[in-house]
Design brief:
Elements (H helix, E strand, L loop, with lengths): L4 E4 L4 E4 L3 E2 L12 H13 L4 E3 L8 H10 L7 E6 L1 E4 L2 E7 L3 H15 L4 E6 L8 H13 L3 E7 L3 H10 L2 E7 L11 H8 L2 E5 L31 H10 L1 H10 L3 H10 L14 H9 L7 H10 L12 H4 L5
Parallel strand pairs: 3-4, 4-5, 5-8, 8-9, 9-10, 10-11
Antiparallel strand pairs: 1-2, 6-7
Length: about 325
């Protein structure tokens, strides 16, 4: 099994067609298992998956430290993306607070480099747009870090059209990271056309709908305390029931193809354009292998049309975040 390659943006960022979201190795979806996480990270390289996504806020800090330990003797084999921009005090995230002041960006990068045990970050994202700092100042700060050799490429996360354009005018943006999947289509009307106009790649996180599209979803109350899905609006009450029905087509196509529902969900994203690189998250080797194998699945035009219709905007019920988290999305 070997993954094909894709280009993100026009600045030369070349990565595996599927990446690995690493957040869940440190938080949000049950207890951590460092030995299995590191084994998963190493196995990803063996499978040709070399694009790894982390952030200072994951933990906070512990996810970058994990990748630093895992990759210190194989740094030349991996592409590491990390992010700055949330407020952190006393080792805890301050929800709803952003901090993208240029001086703070420089501080965060120095700290991330130490945790990652490297001398450069391949792709540096602004995690969320900071309404108190002009995006031109943010892009300029990252441009200076690129000039200094500490960062290779610039990315944005959950940014809207105006800020994408303004940032790109100062420092070319290689990738926008945003939630995009069969059950979250908010990028299709405005964002994706602008990315293609400007030559910016798309990195969808949560391509499996935080596990919903794997076909193994449970109602919110059936997850343990500390699992994000307990507070996910789409896993709750009538929303959950409606969303299970909407996802039936994914399961049906998977059965016909002899595949898993989650593999169909990833294949759908890959068929949406060769400028898109999803980063399904997992902390286990078995699920990693399933996700990577999705690259070999071929969906017909009829398959794509059926999936598009079954999970069209309006068919999926509930906001993708709670109100506080939705407030950080730049739309």
């Amino acid at each position: 099994m070997s993954l094909s390659r894709r280009k993100l943006g026009s600045q030369g960022l070349d990565v595996s067609a599927i990446g690995l979201g690493c957040m869940g190795m440190s938080q949000s979806y049950g207890p951590a298992d460092e030995a299995e996480s590191i084994a998963t990270l190493h196995h990803a390289i063996e499978l040709g998956c070399d694009f790894f996504d982390t952030a200072e806020i994951y933990g906070p800090f512990t996810n970058e430290e994990l990748l630093g330990r895992a990759f210190r003797d194989r740094r030349d084999k991996v592409t590491i993306a990390t992010k700055f921009g949330f407020g952190i005090e006393n080792g805890k995230q301050i929800f709803g607070k952003q901090d993208s002041r240029p001086a703070h960006i420089r501080e965060v990068v120095e700290a991330s480099l130490k945790r990652l045990q490297t001398d450069h970050i391949d792709l540096l994202y602004q995690h969320r747009v900071d309404p108190d700092v002009p995006i031109e100042d943010v892009a300029g700060a990252v441009r200076d870090l690129i000039d200094a050799g500490k960062v290779r490429f610039f990315g944005l996360s959950e940014a809207g059209v105006k800020n994408i354009r303004r940032a790109h005018a100062v420092q070319p943006v290689s990738a926008l990271q945003s939630e995009y999947s069969l059950w979250e289509r908010n990028l299709e009307e405005e964002i994706i056309p602008v990315l293609r106009e400007l030559g910016i790649g798309l990195v969808p996180f949560s391509p499996l709908g935080r596990g919903f599209l794997t076909g193994a979803a449970k109602a919110a109350e059936d997850y343990p305390e500390g699992d994000y899905r307990r507070i996910d609006p789409r896993y709750q009450g009538e929303n959950f029931t409606a969303n299970v029905a909407a996802a039936a087509t994914v399961r049906d196509i998977a059965e016909v193809k002899g595949a898993k529902p989650g593999q169909i969900a990833i294949a759908w994203i890959l068929h949406k354009g060769d400028d898109i690189v999803p980063i399904p998250g997992t902390k286990r080797r078995a699920y990693l292998e399933e996700n990577v194998a999705a690259a070999a699945i071929r969906l017909s035009a009829d398959d794509m049309a059926s999936l598009d219709a079954a999970m069209a905007p309006g068919r999926v019920k509930g906001e993708r975040y709670n109100k506080v988290m939705m407030g950080t999305v730049d739309r």
